[in-house]
What does this fold into?
Amino acid sequence: MYTHFFKLREPPFSITPDPTYLYLSPRHQEALGHLLYGTGQHGGFVQLTGEVGTGKTTIVRTLLAQKLENVDVAVILNPRQSEQEFVQSICDELHVAYPKEGLTLKVLHDALNAHLLATHAAGRRTVIIIDEAQNLERNVLEQVRLLTNLETHKDKLLRIMLVGQPELAQMLSRADLRQLATRITARYHLTPLSPTETVEYIRHRLRIAGNNEALFNMQALALIHKLTGGIPRLVNILCDRSLLGAYASNEHVVTPQIVQGAAAESLGDMPVTPKRAALPFWRLGDRRRWSFSEVVIVVLIAAVCVYWWATASRTQNASIDTAQTMPVAPAVASVPAPSAAPAEASAPSTTTEAAAPRLRDVLANSEPLAVVTGHLIHLWSPGLTVPAGAQVCPSLAAQGLQCYRAQGDWKDVQMLNRPAILTLATGRGVLKYALLRDFDGDDVELDTAQGPLKIPREDLSTAWTGEFLVLWRPPTDQLRITAGTRGAAVVWLRQQLALAAGQPLQEPVSELFDNALREQVLRFQRERGLNPDGVAGARTQMLLSALSSDPAEPRLHTAMNAASMP
It folds into this structure.
């Protein structure tokens, strides 16, 4: 109804789990990473939990859209089944042949086991994803445990993912289910969006639907986060109703008053996750009717807080060692796409008119984010492409490349020593993007549409928001190697730490991440200026892999000695 009025191709806030609209916040990327790990060669039993509406099913759909190589997937959407129906559903999903007469659990298990042995011999992996797993009956959970026993001498024949609400974790903590719980090799709990992520999420969906304009003012955006607690499904419901309200009022920008009216009509007294109560600025659980003056005060406070957060994030220490992704516009790497820069952004501003001439050139002639991202991908693999309409970072992850986004300073970028996409802000808050290729004393070298451009680092700092993105090739199939982990990733970690310390590797090499190994990781992190958390995450792995990685991988200090960008 309102799409033509707001120049949208389609309604941007549908509550159906469409992977096209997936906004990869750091936590959603981490959740997707856990699921991708579960499909890998050494994947096992993965548990993903989250409140209703936080995006679990969308992440599962995104995983299925990756077209994983040599992977067969069975998705169980209805967990309310008997034991026999459950195993039969798995067989049906995997196209396992079984007799229709005299059907028993044993017959199904034998048929499934024979099928899995055959697919394993053919070099294929089999994954079972169980959605709404908190609804599984106790006896069906026992069948899940028995399925994990299907194995060869060296490998598990099934990789199982349990996806559900927080009640799933509570259920698996019961003493009578400890045999199942102890087999889970990776767990992740998906939490709601932060205030800034809620703003990015709304703008992301509007961009995908074809509108780069600021359809919601900052006060309205802050109020939407307050009323929804950052739960994506509730954000979608409220934004859709707000756009409808603005359309009915012939308003081209959604205001807090429109949001309040939309909330009364669409949310009512709908309960939300307790996460909302964590916000320090107001009581979100108080359902009494607020006066107009109170609403104005709350909205003003929210706007100030969002602005303060965005400004402070520029100088925030980015030592947190986690893999994250930049909200890259969906595009084929080799095909230019419309600029992903919004008309307004909560980023630090700089006066473009007063900027140095070369900085003005960078900002005025910057290429769209999709094009800059394509240049970066080309540096890593000239033949690598991203299918049209696909999310860039998940697509790259399926091909062995990971996105890492962080907030930091020049020291952080130099330490990682990889070509980086820098997020810049103009005086009007419009975001621009530039590809950093080299440091040269007090200057930095960027790739631009006109070719390599050298610019004083001090000048570029006035526009750089502190956000950057690099690509890296994980040396193992685990993005985070933590205490208690077993397997080849731990062996690699021990090898690299020994290489970093200039010491021989102690034999026999343990595959367990124990306390002694954690101390080695902590020592390495302190020596390299990383956040000492004892976890081998993205930054730690990047620095360790650089000790013995492929010299052909792009680096800052060698980038400009190679052939120029295409």
In short: The two ends are 44 Å apart (CA to CA). DSSP finds 21 helices and eleven strands in the chain. The first helix runs from residue 26 to 38. Residues 271-298, 305-354, 558-566 have pLDDT under 50 and may be disordered.
